[in-house]
Amino acid sequence: MDLTSYAELAVLLVNSDEPLDSLEGARRFLVEAGRGRHADRLTREDLRVLRELRGELAAVFAAAAARDEEAAVERLNALLTRRPVHPQISRHDGQRWHLHLTEGGRLSDEYAAGAVMGLTALVTELGVDRLGLCQAAPCHRVYLDTSSNRSRRYCSERCASRANVAAYRARRRDLSGPRA
């Protein structure tokens, strides 16, 4: 089972511009995250859990970006303890039987279990250094580096392009020297 798509749930939650201060806002977020089919089950408790989870996941990425593997893994282990995974075989939308990480319980528990288990699988298979914070100023979004050469440094093509253009302009400015 490829859990990268589950790890992407963590990225989507941390990077979301949705403040998660209302049920409607949380529903919008779930639709954007591709999890909208169950958004009608969303409760105020789910809203609280998603806000809390966002901060906890952001702390995992921050520890990884600071190259503090122990702290990142410790935070993931704490999340695994609080968000136990319940695997279930499922079939929907014309797909074959496949594994889901919880289908029952609260919607936020389902989201949390998938995001945490996805990050855990990615970290144990590829390493903590595959979690990152965008290096384009002033962006603070997170990303998963699934590249074959561990070269990703930006959250998106837009940030990569913006950083490359800024670096190019800085080099050109340095080459032209001071102007009188």
UniProtKB/TrEMBL annotation:
- Coiled-coil residues are none
Alphabetized Gene3D superfamilies for the sequence: Jann2411-like domain
- Cross-referenced InterPro entries: ABATE, ABATE_dom_sf, Znf_CGNR
Q: Where does the secretion signal sit in this chain?
A: none
Q: Which stretches make up the Zinc finger CGNR domain?
A: 130-172
Q: Which domain of life is it from?
A: Bacteria
- What Pfam families does the record tag this protein with? ABATE (PF07336), zf-CGNR (PF11706)
Q: What is this protein called?
A: CGNR zinc finger domain-containing protein
State the species of origin: Sphaerisporangium album
